[in-house]
Amino acid sequence: MKGAPSHRRAHPTGPAVIRADRLEVGFRSKPVWKDASFEVGRGEFVAVIGPNGAGKTTLFRMLLGLHRPLAGTIRVLDAPPRRGNRRIGYVPQRHTIDNETHIACETLVRLGFSGTGWGPSFAIRAEREAAADALRSVGAEEFANKSLGSLSGGELQRVFLAEALVGNPDMLLLDEPLSNLDLRRSRDLVELIHGLVRSRNVTTLLVAHDINPLIECLDKVIYIANGRVATGAPEDVLTSASLTELYGVPVEVLHDSRGNIVIVGGENPHEREHA
Amino acid sequence: MTGFLPPFSWNLFTDLRYMWQFAFMRNAFLAGTAIAIVAGIIGYFVVLRRLAFATHALGHVGFSGAAGAVLFSVNPVYGLLLFTMSGAGGMALLGRKAATRDIEIGTVLAFMLAVGLLFLSLYKGYDTEAYSILFGEILAISDSGVVFIVEAALVVLAVMALIYRRLLFASLDEDVAEAKGLPMLGLGLTFMLLLAVAISIAVQVVGVLLIFALTVTPAAIGVRLTTRPLYAVVVSVLVALFAVWVGLFVQFYAHVGDQQFPASFFIVTIAFALYVAVRVGQALSGWLARRNAPPARPGPFARSD
C-alpha cells in the first residue's frame, strides 16, 4: 500500500498470546463494544486506537483480570485473565503520582518488583539489581535517586516503563504513555518502546490517541470505535473502506508525503486531525 | 501541677532522674513515646495518601465520641475508638477519593463537633472534660491508661510492619498495585482503622485540636528531608519523639513566677519550630544553589528533559 512504511521488520507472527473470541465488554450489561475476535502474536507491537470512551482502557482492564467480559472468551498467555499476573507489566493512564510526590524513582521501580510482599523485604540486593536493570533498560539510570515529582512528563513515562519492566514480563500494556508529550518526545519514547519490544520479544499493546508517532513500528492495530473492534495490519485497518465500515458513516483516511495519516469523519473528527 | 515548682539544674542527668521519680511523669514519657512512634509512622502514610484533613476531621469525630463516653460514664478512650473507627471505616468504604473530599468531610466534622458540644453541655463537669479532650492531658494518664496505649501502639506497629510494602505500593501507584493483585479496599480499610487507633491514643497527648502536630507535621518534615520512604518514616518518628520528650521536659521545669504551661503547647510548638526550620533551611539552600549555579542559557530549542 502506498505510504505504508516499508522498513517494518518482516515479522513472523509468533504463537498467539492473546486470543479473543466473539468478545463483548461493558458495564452492567450495557456493552461498550462487542463481537470482537482477534489474536495477538508473541512479540507483536500493537496499537490500540479509538476515540475517548470507546473502551480501550476497558480492554486493558480485562486483560489484567480487573474486568470480566459480558460474553465471549479471552485468553491471555494461554490462560484466562487473572489479577496479579506477574507476566504482565502495566503502565496505567492515571497515576497517583504528581509533582508533590517526593519519593525516589528507584523506590517506585523496586515496588514494582516486590511491592506485593508481606513484612519487611529481605532480598534487598536482588531488588536493587532488578531496579537498576530496569532503569538502565529505559535509559533512566541517572534519575534513580531523583524524586518522582521533579521529573518531566517524558522522564516520568520512562520510569513507569521501568516499573512495568522490572519483573521481565512477557507482555506490556501501556495506556496512553504518549499523552501530554510533545511530538518529538513522543517519537523518542516510541523509539525506546519499539527497541524494547524487539530486543526482549515482549508483546506490547499501547493505547494511543494519535497513530502517527507509532505507525512505522507497528505490527498490528486494534481500532475500537462505535461499539466495534477492527483488527489487522495498520495498512489494512487504517483505510477509508475499513474505517467507514467500522464507524458506519463515511470516513476518509488521508496520507501525506511522509506517511502520516489523517482520519476525517467518524466521531470527533477534529480531535484526530494531526499532521 | 500549679504551686509545685521543680528545681532545675543545668545537670540534665540530675534533672531527668528527679523528673522520673514522679509516676505521672514516667507515665507521660511512656505513653508519649508509644504515641510518637505510632504517629510518626502512620503520619507518613497520611501525607502520602493526602489524608491530612481527614485526619484532622477524625480527631473531631473522636471528640464527640469521647464526650458521649464521658456523658455515659464510660472511659473516654472507648468513645474515641468507637467513633474514630466508625468514621475511618466509613471513609475507607466510600473509596480512596472520599477521604480527600474536603467539603463533605468538613460538613461532617462540624456536625460531629456540635454533637460533642451537646454531650458535654448535658454533662455537668463541662469545662475540665472539654478542655482535656480538646487539648490533651498527658500528665493525667493513669497506669492502666499507659498499658492500654502501649498495647494499642504495639498492635498498630505489628500490623504496619506486616503491610508496610503493600500499603506503600498501593498508596504510591494505585492502579499498578491493583493490577498486581493488591486488595485496594482491604488495604485502605486496614490503614484507616490503624489511623483511627493512632488518633484515639494521640488525642490523649495533644488533644483533638492539636492532633495535626503529631500525626502530620513530623511526617511532613520527613517527606521533605528524604526521598526514601523508610528514611522519611525514621525522620518522622524521631521528630515526633523529640517533640514529645523535649516538650514534656520543658513543661516539667518551665515556669514564669508560679505559672506553668500545658505540655501540649510545648510539644506542638517544638514540632512547629522544626517544620519552620526545615522549610526555611530548604528555601535558603535552594536560593544559594541557584545563586551559585552557572547562569543557564536556554536556547530556543533547549531540551527540558
Largest sheet of chain A: 6 strands, mixed
Measured between the Cα atoms of the first and last residue of chain A, the distance is 20 Å
Q: How do the SSEs of chain B run, as a string of H and E? A: HHHHHHHHHHHHH
Q: What's the SSE pattern of chain A?
A: EEEHEEHHHEHEEEHHEEH
Note the total helix count of chain A: 8
Q: Give the overall pLDDT of chain B as a whole number.
A: 89
Quick one: overall form of chain B? Answer: globular
Structural class, from secondary structure content of chain A? alpha/beta
Report on the biggest sheet of chain B: none
How would the global form of chain A be characterised?
Answer: globular
Low-confidence stretches of chain A: 1-10, 269-275
Strand content of chain A: 25-35%
Radius of gyration of chain A: 19 Å
Order of adjacent strands in the largest pleated sheet of chain A: 5-6-7-3-8-9
Which chain pair has the greatest contact?
Answer: A-B, 38 and 28 residues
Q: What proportion of the residues of chain A is helical, as a percent range?
A: 25-40%
Distance between the termini of chain B: 61 Å
What oligomeric arrangement do these chains adopt? heterodimer
Structure description:
The complex is a heterodimer of chains A (275) and B (305). Chain A is of the alpha/beta class and 275 residues long. Chain A is built from 8 helices and 11 strands. Chain A has a domain at 95-168. Chain A has helices at residues 56-63, 105-114, 124-137, 153-165, 183-200, 234-237, 240-247, 269-272; strands spanning 16-27, 30-41, 45-49, 71-76, 88-91, 171-175, 203-208, 220-225, 228-232, 251-255, 261-265. In chain A, the strands form 3 sheets. Chain A has a 6-stranded mixed sheet with strand order 5-6-7-3-8-9, with helices on both faces. A 3-stranded antiparallel sheet of chain A has the order 2-1-4, with helices on one face. In chain A, strand 10 and strand 11 (261-265) form a beta hairpin. The model of chain A is unreliable at 1-10 and 269-275 (pLDDT under 50). In chain B, helix 3 (52-71) packs antiparallel against helix 4 (76-93). Chain B starts with 11 loop residues before the first helix and ends in a 13-residue tail after the last helix. Chain B contains 13 helices and no strands.
